[in-house]
Amino acid sequence: VTHSIPACIGSMTINSKQLDKESPVSIFAVNKCYETVQDGTFFDGSGFAALVREGYKVRSDVNITLEFRTTAVHGVLLGVSSAKVDAIGLEIVHGKVLFHINNGAGRITAAYEPRGTNSLCDGKWHKLQANKSKHRISLIIDGNLVHTDNPYIQSTSADTNNPIYVGGYPADVKQNCLTSKSSFSGCLRNLVLTKGQHTELFDFSKAFDLRGVFPHSCPGAEH
């Protein structure tokens, strides 16, 4: 077994001596246990998850679905970029959800603006679907559809070949379709990317780089 267990461990004794968990010699990717826990992955607002080390090719079509829960009004959700300008990005800015794409000719954005600034950042789960089909893009939040006109109808393919960054990205990594540098703080679950007939559900515990992210453990909503 080469991976960690997504669980809580307590009251461990070795040779009748209880281990002191409060002052470990070293600690890595260990979070506190919660009395109530939900399915999902916890992002503590300091880092990101990096998926698909060899690079994800968005090209002409991609459909992204995920669920998020946060109380922060800013935060990166997902970005895939290239060394050039081609890229896609999903982010929360001032309580709005923005879906940006650049197929090479220029960035366009679909923006979902809720009635109240905090209505998407209320600590409850919200469903997001972002769709890019050639030059067309749309965004569905909790069943509400937003789409935007794209003047660059001849440009249809986002030629990306970089990892998928979720919840943030490293300072030295370029993201051409994200305006925010704020790491996401909250919980994400059910991240699925679909291209044609190929559907992939991403498991954050299989990310090749995790910083400030705790897979399979989301603190229950506070009451």
Automatic annotation (TrEMBL):
SMART domains linked to this entry: LamG
Coiled coil: none
Xref: Pfam families: Laminin_G_1
Stretches assigned to the Laminin G domain: 38-218
Protein name per its UniProtKB record: LAMA1 protein
Native organism: Chaetorhynchus papuensis (pygmy drongo)
Species classification: Eukaryota, Metazoa, Chordata, Craniata, Vertebrata
